[in-house]
Amino acid sequence: MPEMPEVEGLAQFLREHAVGRAISAVEVGAISALKTFAPAPAALVGRKVSDVARHGKWLDLVTVPAGDGAAGDRTEGGGAPGAGELHLVFHLAKAGWLRWYDEVPRTAVRPGRSPIALRLRLDDGAGFDLTEAGTRKRLAVHVVARPADVPQVATLGVEPADLTVERLRELLAARNQQVKGLLRDQGVIAGIGNAYSDEILHAARISPFALTRSFDDDDVVRLHAAIGEVLAAAVAEASGRPAAELKDAKRRSMRVHGRAGLPCPVCGDTVREVSFADSSLQYCPTCQTGGKILADRRMSKLLR
Questions:
Q1: Cα separation of 252 and 263, whole Å?
Q2: pTM for this structure?
Q3: 127-132 and 116-122 as β-strands: parallel, antiparallel, unpaired?
Q4: Distance between CA atoms of 46 and 294, rounded to whole angstroms?
Q5: Which end of the chain is more exposed for a tag (fewer CB within 10 A), N or C?
Q6: What domains can be seen in the chain, in order of their start residue?
């Protein structure tokens, strides 16, 4: 699943390639992906892309009537909505991606015949597809007047860049839960998913099953530093890359996530895995759990 660094990379890419251009067509390939019906996607046709914002793992293509003011003057994450704006807000989910074309194929998208959920064409022939692989379709597309009209955007937690040590301490103390779950909760911290939570906890030398109310001041400071350092490095790695390269760049940067059975690059111990019904986590026993192995079953608990 694309997480904050890759979504920010996509936002930067689209700012460079789409802002200032007018939308010439929007073709829906998967009705299930379209979560709103008014305004219709066709309402975007003829409008100019004025900015691309990011809200957690959500991308936000900001459009204005073709004759309206300057583009690209909003802040990251989106400022106050302007009069006449329409937003194409979308979440790529677990198996979705954005495929950019300098020249969009001329053939029309046929609903149900391809992995293309939506195709957007720009007035100079460029554009992009939103695609989703697999049978479990979760990609979500909204056309709204304000990003906050999307409930999942309105309820997002704090952006990692705005997370202070004090705020993190409050979040950890609010409910006693496994820290891995807290980091992935979009209503608590926006943008961190399964992969980067593994990487953050490895960098912080903290077990994914550590209970949040057990954290002392040193744990909080280490976790806060790891969140900032891991995500900053990942955003820097994604910055300036074409959309087609972002997935591979993410995989190459991982130290423990997706590396079960390989040596930890810090200590050399074997990276271990805990599997669940529809996901898994990876960790280093030496770096994170004092050498203890986490039981690999759905109700896993740290072996004591």
A1: 15
A2: 0.91
A3: antiparallel
A4: 55
A5: C
A6: 4-154 (3.20.190.10), 160-288 (1.10.8.50)
